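Researcher: I'd like a candidate sequence for this fold, 358 residues long. If you have to choose between options at a position, lean toward the conservative one.
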């Protein structure tokens, strides 16, 4: 595979923000699923990765009439928990991403973990977009299901628009206090200098087309160099999980390169480096929602996949993807560390050493 502007990998987008601002609900809204209501205490406890094929994004953004050809194959979105006790998971998530969505509740403005997330993004110089969520909670909001935000705003009463303006102005001031210039994206004439705000509702979907399009366009515009596909594996272990009937598996984010069934890999373990062979490469089985059926068609068309149990098995997977790896001897693997593939010219001993430095 050639490294070129015509061969971009999918950007990785991390969703961050204070607890209960609607991060998981936003993902649910985009996927057409309901993960959020199944969570214990509605609190996200881990990082989950969801892959959105470009076809799906094109479909969701059609109404914005921006159907310029998307140059990335899709978007890998990583959800993170907002609860204060999960600082390490937020940090791990933000460390993986090319771009982030910082979710702010329009009724609450900036909160403690908003600021913590903001500092992580600043520290790593990560591009981000603010989703100003829960606009449907403005008093008197008229639902305009899945509409672009400017269209939805036009349908609102003067009272709703005034409350909206007042809250947006306050929140822009709060960002300024954190040293950041922000503006509603459709008024922003200095993209790059001024961070974009997209008003959204994760319940009724207003602003979701805008958020998706902006994410993809913005990454294509600013991150082409970073998104040029390379064969060099960049892969991080997110979770080490025991699965019934499969033993211990690892959930990884493949940020660059291609993984194959049968690849020899090395991961960091509490009792030394683990050298093993990929027995199965798995991604979650698409759900039965309409959206997912559409998405699964694309999955099958593109990758000759076979459904087996609740996961899809793959012969190979190209970045970026969230992947479950089944292999022997993973019991003591350490989350948050790198995964390495032993190539034909590589010395296993060198790679073992590199692994333990993570
Ligand atoms: P953590 O993972 O715990 O940090 O929370 P979160 O940011 O993922 O928030 P979550 O998606 O769990 O949503 C929190 C609550 O807000 C739930 O009761 C949602 O139904 C509600 N909620 C989320 N988005 C919206 C929205 O756009 N409008 C309204 N009215 N409620 C929302
Ligand atoms: Na929550
Ligand atoms: Mg959540």
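Model: Candidate sequence:
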């Amino acid at each position: 595979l050639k490294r070129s502007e015509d061969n971009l990998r999918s950007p990785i987008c991390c969703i961050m923000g204070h607890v209960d601002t609607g991060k998981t609900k936003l993902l649910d809204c985009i996927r057409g699923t309901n993960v959020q209501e199944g969570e214990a205490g509605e609190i996200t406890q881990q990082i989950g990765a969801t892959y959105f094929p470009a076809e799906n994004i094109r479909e969701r953004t059609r109404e914005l009439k921006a159907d310029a050809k998307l140059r990335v194959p899709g978007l890998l979105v990583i959800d993170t928990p907002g609860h204060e006790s999960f600082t390490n998971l937020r940090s791990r998530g933000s460390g993986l991403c090319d771009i982030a969505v910082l979710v702010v509740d329009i009724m609450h403005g900036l909160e403690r973990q908003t600021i913590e997330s903001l500092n992580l993004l600043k520290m790593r110089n990560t591009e981000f977009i603010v989703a100003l969520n829960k606009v449907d909670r403005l008093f008197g909001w008229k639902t305009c299901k899945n509409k672009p935000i400017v269209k939805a705003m036009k349908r609102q009463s003067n009272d709703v628009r005034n409350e909206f303006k007042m809250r947006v102005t306050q929140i822009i001031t709060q960002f300024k206090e954190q040293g950041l210039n922000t503006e509603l994206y459709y008024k922003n004439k200095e993209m790059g200098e001024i961070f974009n705000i997209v008003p959204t509702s994760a319940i009724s979907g207003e602003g979701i087309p805008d958020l998706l399009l902006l994410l993809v366009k913005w990454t294509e515009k600013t991150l082409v160099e970073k998104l040029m596909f390379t064969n060099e594996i960049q892969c991080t272990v997110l979770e080490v999980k025991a699965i019934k009937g499969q033993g211990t598996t690892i959930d990884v984010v493949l940020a660059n390169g291609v993984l194959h069934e049968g690849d020899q890999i090395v991961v960091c373990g509490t009792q030394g480096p683990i050298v093993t062979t990929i027995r199965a490469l798995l991604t979650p089985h698409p759900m039965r929602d309409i959206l997912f059926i559409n998405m699964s068609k694309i999955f099958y068309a593109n990758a000759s996949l076979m459904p087996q149990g609740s996961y899809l098995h793959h012969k190979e997977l190209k970045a970026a993807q969230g992947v479950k790896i089944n292999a022997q001897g993973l019991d003591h693997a350490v989350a948050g560390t790198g995964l390495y593939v032993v190539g034909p010219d590589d010395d296993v001993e060198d790679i073992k050493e590199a692994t333990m430095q993570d």
